[in-house]
Amino acid sequence: MFHKTGHSRKPWISSWTYLPIYGFGAVLVIFVFARLSNNPLILFFIAVIGTSILEYATGYLSETLFSIRLWDYSSTRFNLKGRVCLLNSTLFGLLSLFVTYGVHPPISQRFLINSLQLSWSMGGQKSSSYCLVLIPPARYCE
């Protein structure tokens, strides 16, 4: 993590090495990019461009709003103002394919089955609690 002065430090946003951009990027890939195309090659290019835009915007905003430089790619080849670089954009594209086709399907299938079972049981509980709320107490029915 880099401050504008070049000194290494952790950003105040997160004390972990993981930042919210990673989770937001994964959600963006799964729920937006993956729905745009079923073709892995097209998805790869959409993900490269989309994650690069997200990374550039996040880097720009962190520098201008908080004076914090979260990453610095200025020493790598084919970078854009040190905020994005071709190597990482390509790796994010490959990681997007891995998440979309390798990680997300088994996890979503597992949670879909569990959430359907849970929703049926919760639905019954909600219905019975709604009925209890709608039925006035006996003393008010006299």
Mean pLDDT, nearest integer? Answer: 76
Outline: globular
- Order the strands across the largest sheet as they lie in space: 1-2
Counting structural domains, the number is 1
Q: Give unreliable regions as ranges.
A: 1-5, 7-14, 121-142
Largest sheet composition: 2 strands, antiparallel
| Topology pattern, helix = H, strand = E | EHHEEEH
Give me the count of strands.
4
- From the N-terminal CA to the C-terminal CA, the straight-line distance is 70 Å
Structural class: mainly alpha
Q: How big is the Rg?
A: 23 Å
* Distinct helical segment count: 3
Throw out a few tags for this protein:
142 residues; mainly alpha; two-stranded antiparallel sheet; two-stranded antiparallel ribbon; 4 strands; 65% helix; globular; disordered C terminus
Annotate the secondary structure layout.
Blueprint: E1 2-3, H1 20-36, H2 40-66, E2 68-69, E3 79-80, E4 84-85, H3 86-134
Antiparallel strand pairs: 1-2, 3-4
Explain what the structure shows.
This protein is mainly α. The chain has one domain (2-103). It is 65% helix and 6% strand. It has three helices and four strands. The strands form two sheets. Strands 1-2 form a two-stranded antiparallel ribbon. Strand 3 and strand 4 (84-85) form a beta hairpin. Helix 1 packs antiparallel against helix 2 (40-66) and helix 1 crosses helix 3 (86-134).
